């Protein structure tokens, strides 16, 4: 999977353009936002790990937490997001917690897996609707960012690639017509 | 002092053509110094990212804000986290854009031969006769028969994989076994052959990746990480091939950090006697002397040095009596084409990352039957089909994860590369006011797509959609990126064109300056027209041919 395909995948799975994608893909310069890294605490990273794990849970293969997606999100937000998106993302962590309190009467970290999933399904729908209808100058939706970074981070991680796919660093050959049946591990 | 700085030959630049000049001159027994403006890059040892897995790149190969700030022009090309060390820092290497121009550069030993696209297509007489036939630019001083044996000569050394097709506008060469079209590409290729009566063909790309071991290099491992440098020597670069062969003769000296300032002229002998450089790190100015000089500092780099080589004999730059030096800058125009998705072949997937795609040779304006009234010359296509993982999914949790592990549908992307007509107003000059940090005048670039290119783009886009349609693709989209400025294709050519007449050209048919016979230029600057094929293999063939001539002339005492 090349970079363009991965971004397309992430965009489609989250129903819109990749936030920061203009940086990731074409690399438009944004000098104003340079070097304004927002700091994240270890609590923040633990929180983001749980959000990511809810999006991509551990099954027979590793989940997002094992792939250290929480930490990856903070690196990308700090180093690659513009200032406005950084602010939206940081405020979004609190908004997500508030939404959990409202829906379940307790914080996200205290919620069980079922409650967490229920919350994120509703936020996923909310983000998708919002992103579809928003004006260009309106801020992005924080959950859009979290989901996109989760998918990007997980599907480029060692466990994410090695456990879900037939990942080969050095393929050694090319075959453009390999027979495939459902359940086969895909080469990436 | 003078002794240690004296060689038989000087080559300025170590990129794809400089590497060839160095190898040919060294093999002929000439003590040769290569002056490279950037740092040394030793094959394999200096490829720090070559073996990194996706998760070993901190930003998973995305550019950070800082990189995008420092390399704000380079990132418009294909610069990313894993190869950014091979692209210049734009803040350190400024130039003046009179009109938007993306100058993508690599300043180090090997130059852009490390990151090049590796597509290699011979030109034909359709290209070498184009200027003479429609009156744009001057006539090429050579024809296909002059360069044909030199194409073979370089192909046999480089190792280029490709298929034999018998297309007159895209001559076959001495190829290694071709790579394979994938299932969808084969299907579309068959459809095109069947449904278009104008002879157009979709073939596998001809690429300087080794499909078998070759001259001690390769074979290619199908990682498709070429632009990081290849630890398997699976593709051709100066670093992997020509410079090691030159070094093996014992005649090569490479001096990194040597920024070419000007060529030193001996008024009495009416010859160049050497090259003056400034050390990139110490800023010391040093002179090197030789009997012949090969200028291979890249299209714009070589022209900048000639423009800066001013004296009372050459008040407007060396070899510029014609006022053609700096003019007729060309690139290929691209970022135009179409894509689509395919329903079938659901029982087929791909293994391996082929560092190559398809090619559609030019099929417009090649004979009476294919003549267009809306534009001159033509274009080709590159691209290919792929099947990625299933990304068309929504939701959260286990469902999402499991769906994303399966294959998605097949897709096809077809991009077009078009010829740019030579135009005297598309030019570079030296800035009268702006200097770089070594005190050298900055280049001012004034170049734009003109009517013919803009008219051609409509057909480039629509024909792409038409071919995909013929192959049964669905949800076809088209694109025509108006912000793909000249330079972005990194096929810059012209500014010191070859020609028969010293009044209208800078170089003769042997790539010698008309006015200074021991100075040769064989990089992209020498090109008289741009054709629509990727140009590097033509630079290599012209370099080998010119080096052979230079050595013969030197032996005869003519230089």
Give the SSE map.
The complex is a heterodimer of chains A (188) and B (559).
Chain A: H1 3-13, H2 21-26, H3 42-55, H4 69-80, H5 83-104, H6 113-133, H7 142-154, H8 158-164, E1 175-179
Helix pairs in contact in A: 3-4, 3-7, 4-7, 5-6, 5-7, 6-7
Chain B: E1 9-12, H1 16-27, E2 32-35, H2 65-70, E3 96-97, H3 125-128, H4 130-134, H5 144-158, H6 183-195, E4 202-204, H7 238-247, E5 252-255, E6 258-266, E7 271-279, E8 285-289, E9 292-295, H8 299-308, E10 336-342, E11 348-351, E12 358-360, E13 379-389, H9 398-404, E14 407-418, E15 427-435, E16 441-446, H10 451-470, E17 474-480, E18 519-521, H11 536-555
Parallel strand pairs in B: 1-2, 1-9, 2-5, 3-16, 9-18
Antiparallel strand pairs in B: 4-12, 6-7, 7-8, 10-14, 10-17, 12-13, 13-14, 15-16
Beta-strand percentage of chain A?
under 5%
Percentage of helical residues of chain B? 10-25%
Percent of sequence in beta strands of chain B: 15-25%
Structural class from helices and strands of chain B? alpha/beta
The radius of gyration over CA of chain B amounts to: 23 Å
Mean pLDDT of chain B: 97
Low-confidence stretches of chain A: 21-37
Straight-line distance between termini of chain B: 24 Å
User: Could you say which structural class the secondary elements and strand pairing of chain A correspond to?
Assistant: mainly alpha
Anisotropy-based shape of chain A: globular
The number of domains of chain A: 1
Major pleated sheet of chain A? none
Rough shape of chain B?
A: globular
Our count of helices of chain A gives 8
**How would you spell out the order of helices and strands of chain A?**
HHHHHHHHE
Assembly state here? heterodimer
Distance linking N and C termini of chain A: 5 Å
Number of helical segments with 4 or more residues of chain B? 11
Largest sheet of chain B: 6 strands, antiparallel
Walk me through the structure.
The complex is a heterodimer of chains A (188) and B (559). Chain A is mostly helical and 188 residues long. Chain A has one domain. Chain A is built from eight helices and one strand. Chain A has helices at 3-13, 21-26, 42-55, 69-80, 83-104, 113-133, 142-154, 158-164, and one strand at 175-179. Mean pLDDT of chain A is 86; it is low at 21-37. With 559 residues, chain B is of the alpha/beta class. Chain B has a domain at 177-205 and 333-418 and 449-485. Helices cover 22% and strands 19% of the residues of chain B. Chain B has eleven helices and 18 strands. Chain B has a six-stranded antiparallel beta sheet. In chain B, a hairpin with a 5-residue loop joins strand 15 and strand 16. In chain B, helix 1 runs parallel beside helix 11. The longest helix of chain B is centred in the last third of the chain and has 20 residues, at 451-470. Chain B is globular. The chains are: A mainly alpha (188), B alpha/beta (559). The interface between A and B is large, with 72 and 61 residues. Strand 1 (175-179) of chain A pairs antiparallel with strand 11 (348-351) of chain B.
């Amino acid at each position: 999977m090349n970079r363009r395909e991965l971004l397309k995948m992430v965009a489609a799975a989250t129903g819109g353009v990749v936030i920061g994608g203009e940086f990731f893909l074409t690399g438009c310069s944004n000098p104003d936002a340079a070097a304004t890294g927002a700091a994240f605490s270890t609590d923040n990273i633990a929180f983001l790990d749980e959000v990511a794990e809810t999006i991509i849970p551990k099954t027979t293969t590793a989940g997002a937490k094992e792939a250290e997606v929480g930490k990856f999100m903070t690196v990308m937000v700090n180093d690659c997001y513009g200032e406005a998106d950084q602010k939206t993302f940081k405020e979004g962590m609190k908004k997500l917690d508030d939404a959990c309190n409202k829906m379940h009467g307790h914080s996200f970290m205290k919620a069980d897996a079922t409650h967490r999933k229920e919350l994120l399904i509703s936020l996923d729908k909310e983000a998708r609707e919002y992103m579809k209808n928003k004006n260009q100058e309106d801020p992005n939706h924080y959950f859009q960012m979290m989901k996109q970074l989760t998918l990007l981070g997980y599907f480029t991680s060692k466990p994410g690639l090695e456990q879900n796919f037939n990942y080969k660093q050095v393929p050694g050959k090319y075959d453009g017509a390999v027979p495939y049946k459902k359940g086969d591990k895909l080469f990436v | 002092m003078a002794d240690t700085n004296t060689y038989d030959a000087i080559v300025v630049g170590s990129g794809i053509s400089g590497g060839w000049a160095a190898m040919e001159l060294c093999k002929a027994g000439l003590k040769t110094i290569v002056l490279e403006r950037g740092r040394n890059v030793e094959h394999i040892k200096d490829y720090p990212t070559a073996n990194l897995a996706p998760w070993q790149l901190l930003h998973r190969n995305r550019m950070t804000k800082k990189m995008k700030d420092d390399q704000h022009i380079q990132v418009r090309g294909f610069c990313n986290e894993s190869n950014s060390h091979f692209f210049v820092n734009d803040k350190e290497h400024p130039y003046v854009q009179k009109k938007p121009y993306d100058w993508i550069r690599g300043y180090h030993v090997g130059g852009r031969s490390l990151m090049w696209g590796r597509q290699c297509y011979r030109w034909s007489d359709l290209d070498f006769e184009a200027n003479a036939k429609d009156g744009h630019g001057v006539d090429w001083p050579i024809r296909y028969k002059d360069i044909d044996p030199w194409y073979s000569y370089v192909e046999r050394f480089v190792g280029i994989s490709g298929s034999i097709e018998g297309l007159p506008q895209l001559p076959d060469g001495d190829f290694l076994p071709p790579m394979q079209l994938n299932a969808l590409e084969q299907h579309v290729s068959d459809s095109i052959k069947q449904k278009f009566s104008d002879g157009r063909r979709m073939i596998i790309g001809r690429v300087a990746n080794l499909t078998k071991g070759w001259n001690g290099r390769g074979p290619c491992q199908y990682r498709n990480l070429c632009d990081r440098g290849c630890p398997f020597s699976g593709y051709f670069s100066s670093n992997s091939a020509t410079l090691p062969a030159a070094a093996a003769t014992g005649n090569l000296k490479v001096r990194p950090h040597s920024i070419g300032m000007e060529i030193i002229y001996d008024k009495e002998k009416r010859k160049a006697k050497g090259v003056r450089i400034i050390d990139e790190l110490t800023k010391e100015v040093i002179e090197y002397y030789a009997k012949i000089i090969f200028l291979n500092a890249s299209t714009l780099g070589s022209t900048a040095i000639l423009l800066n080589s001013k004296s009372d004999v050459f008040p407007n730059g060396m070899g510029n009596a014609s006022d053609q030096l700096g003019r007729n800058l060309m690139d290929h125009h691209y970022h135009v084409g179409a894509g689509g998705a395919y329903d079938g072949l659901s029982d087929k997937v791909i293994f391996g990352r082929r560092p190559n795609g398809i090619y559609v040779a030019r099929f417009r304006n090649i004979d009476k039957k294919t003549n267009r009234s809306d534009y001159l010359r033509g274009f080709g296509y590159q691209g290919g089909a792929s099947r990625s993982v299933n990304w068309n999914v929504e939701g959260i949790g286990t469902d999402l994860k499991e769906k994303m592990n399966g294959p998605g549908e097949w897709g096809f992307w077809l991009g077009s590369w078009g010829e740019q007509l030579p135009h005297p107003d598309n030019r570079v000059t030296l800035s009268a006011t702006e200097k770089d940090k070594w005190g050298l005048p900055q280049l001012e670039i004034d170049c734009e797509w003109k009517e013919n290119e803009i008219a051609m783009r409509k057909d480039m886009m629509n024909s792409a959609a038409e071919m995909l349609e013929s192959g049964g693709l669905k949800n076809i989209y088209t694109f025509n990126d108006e912000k793909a400025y000249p330079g972005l294709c990194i096929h810059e050519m012209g500014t010191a064109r070859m020609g028969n007449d010293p009044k209208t050209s800078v170089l003769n048919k042997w790539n010698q300056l008309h006015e200074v016979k021991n100075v040769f230029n064989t990089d992209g600057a020498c090109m008289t027209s741009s054709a629509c094929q990727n140009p590097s293999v033509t630079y290599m063939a012209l370099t080998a041919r010119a080096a052979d001539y230079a050595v013969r002339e030197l032996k005869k005492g003519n230089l």
